[in-house]
Amino acid sequence: MEFKERSDKKILDDIKSAGQTFLGLRMEDLLLRINELDDTDIKKQLIQEYYEHQIGTHDDKFDGTRTRVNSAIRIIAANKVLFALNVITNSNFRVPPDAVLKASETIAKIERGEIKLPILS
After folding, report:
1. Is the distance from CB of 56 to CB of 42 less than 8 angstroms?
2. Which domain does 106 fall in, by range?
């Protein structure tokens, strides 16, 4: 994956587009499947999987899930995963507790080295 610089303001827009619930619940999985995100066909299958098995979100159309995944990819490519997860853990009451907990667990796994952030070129 190639590094693509984005300002914190744009990352906050990406967080909004993806949804804090989606990011909290799915960021770990996206990081573990990072290699799939560079292949267009495999990425489309991943988006289809997320669309068919929605957790904590409800997209009426496939395009909604695609927007969520592409926003998450922009966060990852900007090397702002921890920033985004911290926004979620410090968010207000509208983010479900399970998404906040999962975001906190993902941060801890990254800090312990159990989940590696991608090396961006």
Report:
1. no
2. 8-112
